[in-house]
Design a protein that fits this description.
Blueprint (H helix, E strand, L loop, with lengths): L5 E7 L4 H17 L3 E7 L2 H13 L4 E4 L3 H5 L1 H8 L5 E3 L2 H6 L3 E5 L1 H16 L15 E6 H6 L6 H6 L2 E3 L5 H5 L9 E2 H4 L3 H4 L4
Parallel strand pairs: 1-2, 1-3, 3-4, 4-5, 6-7
Antiparallel strand pairs: 5-6, 7-8
């Protein structure tokens, strides 16, 4: 969206306030550097979430970013049903893409849990927890929902698709049938759809 000038940021103030404040501050700083205005909608309850959605209906930004939290996750379908048909939604966890977000980018939770299990194993074998190094996440997951993009009339650049770990196609194709025995969910690994890239990239 090269003409993006106004973006909404939906945040849950109950979810680690210090982290939310830092993320909001950093996001605003980044947006300011690229000339984008940020409309922050802060919530603390489901009632406030519904009020924020009404605000988005009256004063819609060009796109919406949803910071993940227990409330956002539980009511993600409500969020998507209210806004995803009118503006692009970007989230953090994969389930937001499955619910209708155009794009999600986050830490690979499964990989993070795998590392946590390795830590537990080392402690059970006698390692001192205080001697173990603090590790930062090293694996992230980018999911692109072409179905949501197509419904909004957006074209996802091939450069983004090439970086994606997973792509949700916008319509059933022979590729889905071909790899149906491999996949267990409605989305397919990115590498599997690039042989038919012209079939899934919206052209209008």
């Amino acid at each position: 969206m090269p003409k993006l000038k106004d973006i909404g940021l939906l945040v849950d103030q109950n979810d680690e306030p210090d982290v939310v404040e830092y993320a909001n501050k950093e996001f605003r700083s980044l947006a300011r550097d690229v000339g984008v205005n940020v409309q922050t909608l802060s919530i603390r309850s489901v009632k406030e979430l519904r009020a924020a959605l009404r605000t988005l209906d009256k004063e819609p930004p060009q796109a919406l970013i949803v910071l993940d939290s227990p409330i956002m996750t539980q009511y993600r379908r409500v969020i998507m049903e209210n806004v995803a048909h009118r503006l692009p939604v970007l989230g953090q966890q994969r389930h937001f893409a499955e619910s209708g977000a155009v794009l999600t980018y986050s830490v690979d939770v499964v990989d993070m849990f795998r590392h946590s299990a390795a830590y537990v194993a080392r402690i059970l074998k006698g390692a001192n927890p205080g001697d173990l190094p603090i590790e930062q996440p090293t694996k992230f997951q980018l999911v692109v929902n072409l179905r949501a993009a197509k419904e909004l009339g957006l074209i996802v650049p091939a450069s983004v698709l090439l970086r994606a770990d997973e792509v949700i196609p916008y319509q059933p194709s022979h590729l889905q049938i071909l790899f149906s025995s491999f996949k267990k969910r409605q989305s397919v690994p990115c590498a599997m759809i690039f042989c038919g890239l012209d079939l899934i990239i919206p052209t209008s």
